[in-house]
Amino acid sequence: MEIAIIAHDGKKAEMVQFLNAHSDILHQKQISLVSTGTTGEKVLKAGFKVNALLSGPLGGDAQIASRVAEGKCNMVLFFRDPLDRHPHEPDVLMLMRLCDVHDVPLATNPATAELLIKAV
Ligand SMILES: O=C(CO)COP(=O)(O)O
Predict the structure, then answer these.
(1) pLDDT band, residue 24 (cuts 50/70/90)
(2) Nearest residue CA, atom 9 of ligand 1?
(3) Contact (Cβ atoms closer than 8 angstroms) between residue 43 and residue 19
(4) For residues 8 and 70, what is the distance between their CA atoms, to the nearest angstrom?
(5) Residue 29's pLDDT is what?
(6) Cα–Cα–Cα angle for 58, 91, 107, nearest 5°?
(7) What is the DSSP secondary structure assignment for residue 77, as one 8-state letter?
């Protein structure tokens, strides 16, 4: 299955920690990761295999939304930073809306991501 991982700047370190804590599940369940660009760079540096798309503000969230709509992406783990401003907020809303349209599990914080990854 394919899981999308996205983290706003203030949450990227937490995303790497999260993946390290759950690396066993990622391997055992043969999960392929797709991500927005800068999140992907950090995750690659931490030693994970990931298909890094465009950076979020340049269309990365929209690319992941497209994968959700096409049935290619089965889960989205999005560590949002609600205390920061994001010029591409419309893309973020589109991604969340398409997860709802296509009934794709979406976590918008680490606590929910923890529950979802354990259910894989
Ligand atoms: O902006 C983002 C999510 O909306 C994340 O994008 P990056 O991973 O490229 O920073």
Answers:
(1) very high
(2) 55
(3) yes
(4) 24
(5) 94
(6) 110
(7) E
pLDDT in tens, 71-111: 999 999 999 999 999 999 999 999 999 999 999 999 999 99
Torsion, CA 4, CA 8, CA 9, CA 10, rounded to 10: -120
Neighbours of 23 (CB within 10 A): 13
Q: Which residues contact 103 (CB under 8 A, 6 or more apart)?
A: none
Contacts of residue 77, Cβ cutoff 8 Å, sequence gap at least 6? 3, 4, 5, 6, 15, 18, 107, 113, 116, 117
Domains for the chain: give ranges and CATH numbers: 2-118 (3.40.50.1380)
Pairwise CA distance, residues 42 & 106, whole Å: 21
CA–centroid distance, residue 29 to ligand 1 (Å): 25
How far apart are the CA of 103 and the centre of ligand 1, in A?
22
Question: Would you call 81 a catalytic residue per the annotation?
Answer: no
